[in-house]
DNA sequence: GTAGGGTTAG
């Protein structure tokens, strides 16, 4: 029978159903579960599985696992220890699921690289009318979208966020920016970023990182400056992105400035900055500085080991790579899949086929399944060493579809060893991948051209043009003072052009006298001998070197950066130039460093 | 309780 409430005194409200009705009084109960949460955080940080599991047992016995926050910590604990299915079990054992529980499980799958599981749970959650995807759930789903490069899913979740108004939330907004950036839609990312009502250091860093990832280094730097202007408290994350930009564009002077800025802001010791600095200095060709950063840091983590290994490998100090691996294992750091990429990279660039195969097989001992990238490295290793048939057999045996990188490595091997037949025989299979990158497209086209199939080559080039894509123009650049001087083959736009060309003619006589003979087999177009000579004589790296010879003081090493591979003829020519001029010339192409000194190159002519 | 990370190939 219904009675009016004022007719009887209000009784004590019952404990909400979601809390266990046990003997604990409310107060001790509250304090108890907070302590438990802190313990879980501690065990998660320390990756202490045993302690976490015993606490888990205690929590279940006392019924505390029914509290959403405790449940979150449980899920999070197993998630961080890379046991997503344990997290999933806990999720299902929880009767009362709040938005915390849902966001925890979705985030767990996103963290453990199982984005599609995350989507499934998101869909499951949407079937429950009472559950609203709020500002905690949406970022987790966005993360899964970014991870799987699923822009379609990302867009629809973004729409949902806009419809519910949660897009105005800074966490949601930042995750949307990240999602578009990861899916390669920098324009959309920037639009969302600009329209965010509130931005914090994560939003800015995400946007900067997005530009850094897609190679829009100038824009990344402009945004970083804008962030400083806004008085934003930039952190180590922001710095690692900007330092990476300096490395990609080989802005050595700027990189050093960032380094000192880090020192001033006490961000130096943090790991991400450390590894970013190592790879920046290495990419700028200053291996000494990279090594100094590595040696100065007391707490070396996995990323720094990896970055330093790549650095030694890039500079052809292969022995150092193996030494570092040994030291790393002795210190108790377990190599990961990136470590093996570093090692295979080192082997491939030194022509160490036996060692490469050894480490490729050894991966399984560390519980790491070779991914497509490792296969690409192995194909690269075999291809460079001339074992093209073996490389092709490895591709056939791959448990996954051969990627662009794999075919790229194979075709590069074919080009180095001038096996045009094999190259043109796989060309069609490369185009089966659909729209491949301009770089790979040119490899295919060049493979046709080199085997005399000029019509096919022209058709491949036309395909690229029709798609509105252009082959990347070959550029070389040199840093001088605060300026970067960029050169393209045969151009005469630089203000010192006449001096540069005069210097080149002078050099040509000198090196020919020393024994240099021009080799035009690297020119892959159907042109006359004169034109071939002309196009090779003024390759961009030669212009850049000539510029440095004209302007640099005699003792200064010449550092030239190039975005494409150095051609065989230039490599020979630069060796002679270093001998005739007595200068140290360091050339970084898109592949590795060449240190020319006294007529020799550090790569040992193997690249 | 939720969002951002290091590495390679061409």
UniProtKB/TrEMBL annotation:
<keyword id="KW-0677">Repeat</keyword>
<dbReference type="Pfam" id="PF01535">
    <property type="entry name" value="PPR"/>
</dbReference>
<feature type="repeat" description="PPR">
    <location>
        <begin position="200"/>
        <end position="234"/>
    </location>
</feature>
<feature type="repeat" description="PPR">
    <location>
        <begin position="301"/>
        <end position="335"/>
    </location>
</feature>
<dbReference type="GO" id="GO:0008270">
    <property type="term" value="F:zinc ion binding"/>
</dbReference>
<dbReference type="Pfam" id="PF20431">
    <property type="entry name" value="E_motif"/>
</dbReference>
<dbReference type="InterPro" id="IPR046848">
    <property type="entry name" value="E_motif"/>
</dbReference>
<dbReference type="InterPro" id="IPR046960">
    <property type="entry name" value="PPR_At4g14850-like_plant"/>
</dbReference>
<dbReference type="InterPro" id="IPR032867">
    <property type="entry name" value="DYW_dom"/>
</dbReference>
<feature type="repeat" description="PPR">
    <location>
        <begin position="336"/>
        <end position="370"/>
    </location>
</feature>
<feature type="domain" description="DYW">
    <location>
        <begin position="515"/>
        <end position="607"/>
    </location>
</feature>
<comment type="similarity">
    <text>Belongs to the PPR family. PCMP-H subfamily.</text>
</comment>
<dbReference type="GO" id="GO:0009451">
    <property type="term" value="P:RNA modification"/>
</dbReference>
<dbReference type="Pfam" id="PF13812">
    <property type="entry name" value="PPR_3"/>
</dbReference>
<dbReference type="GO" id="GO:0003723">
    <property type="term" value="F:RNA binding"/>
</dbReference>
<dbReference type="InterPro" id="IPR002885">
    <property type="entry name" value="PPR_rpt"/>
</dbReference>
<dbReference type="InterPro" id="IPR011990">
    <property type="entry name" value="TPR-like_helical_dom_sf"/>
</dbReference>
<feature type="repeat" description="PPR">
    <location>
        <begin position="371"/>
        <end position="405"/>
    </location>
</feature>
<protein>
    <recommendedName>
        <fullName>DYW domain-containing protein</fullName>
    </recommendedName>
</protein>
<feature type="region of interest" description="Disordered">
    <location>
        <begin position="1"/>
        <end position="21"/>
    </location>
</feature>
<dbReference type="Pfam" id="PF14432">
    <property type="entry name" value="DYW_deaminase"/>
</dbReference>
